[in-house]
Amino acid sequence: MVDVARQLLDELMGRNRNLDPSASAKEVSWSDEEFCPYFLVKFCPHDLFVNTRADLGQCTKLHDDEAKRLFDEAKPCRKKTQYEEDFLRFCTNMINEVDRKIVKGKQRLLLMNSKTEGGRPVPKHQEQLNSLTEKINKLVRDAEEAGTRGDVEQAQGLMEQCDQLKEEKEALVKQHESNGWSVTAEIAASQEKQMEVCEVCGAFLIVGDAQQRIDDHLTGKQHLGYSKLRKAVDEMYEARRKNTINLEERRSKDDDRRRRENVKREDRKSRERDDRYSNKREDRDRNRYRRDHREYKDRSDRYDNRQRDRHSRRDRNERDRDRSRSRSY
């Protein structure tokens, strides 16, 4: 009881209610173990079914709005994802449990209806009519046997009893024909009290019940609690589905972008290879031209040198001949 009171005071006045005004308050962190993880994610299921058959008892954790705000503003992380998984698992287990209850309730109603239809009790006046009919038939058979034996007096006595029973039977039939409306009313009343199972919380409802009682059920804690659980689970699964679709679209866009970048990269490499090949070819052509030009120049120089040497020898020979001729004179 003391812990519950302390928790209520913490939720109403804050955890630092007893601190000195000059003292610095402890900074709130949503990851502290004292805070209820279910309340941080959406809401605490313990608060939904107070004083109902599905009451889960008092929550042992703190429900702090500041911690919830920090949790909502926090970036996705492993602990935050774990809190969401725990909340989803807890709510799903509760929904599965009430769904099993709904299935059992429907099976129970189906069994009750089949028993009512298959083994419906026979009305009291019908039992009387059946009994009178059996007695009349028996008296007729006995009278026939007495007549066969030749006992006329006994046969007449039996037929008189048979006539009395027939009159009693006719009177009974007329009496219940005049009261036929009451039988119809009973059947209608039994039909009006047919039951059905609520698809949300599993409660038994009367078909065609008064609107006020239907509204009371729809606004009751148990129905609203399970409705809130189902809505929260559906919203979380829908959010996950959208996140998955967005993630797949983002991955697809990233794949397309990487594919385009790879194509551009390959094109650039291909152009670079072509440029290198072209440059190499130009270099080869240039080197070939230079080599050919050098070889041509070398050949030309050698030719010029040979010609020069030839002319030089010829000139020298001519000078030698002229010198020798001049000596001979």
UniProtKB/TrEMBL annotation:
Q: Which residues form a coiled coil?
A: 122-179
Q: Name one Pfam family in it.
A: LUC7
Q: Which GO terms describe its biological process?
A: mRNA splice site recognition
Instruction: Give start-end positions of Basic and acidic residues composition bias.
Output: 248-307, 315-329
> What span is annotated as the signal peptide, if there is one?
none
Q: Name one GO molecular function term.
A: mRNA binding
Gene Ontology CC terms: U1 snRNP
Annotated segments matching region Disordered:
248-329
Keyword match Nuclease: no
For this UniProt record, the keywords arranged alphabetically read as follows: Coiled coil
- Describe the family membership recorded for this protein in Swiss-Prot or TrEMBL: Belongs to the Luc7 family.
Name the chain's protein: Spliceosome subunit
Organism of this sequence: Anopheles minimus
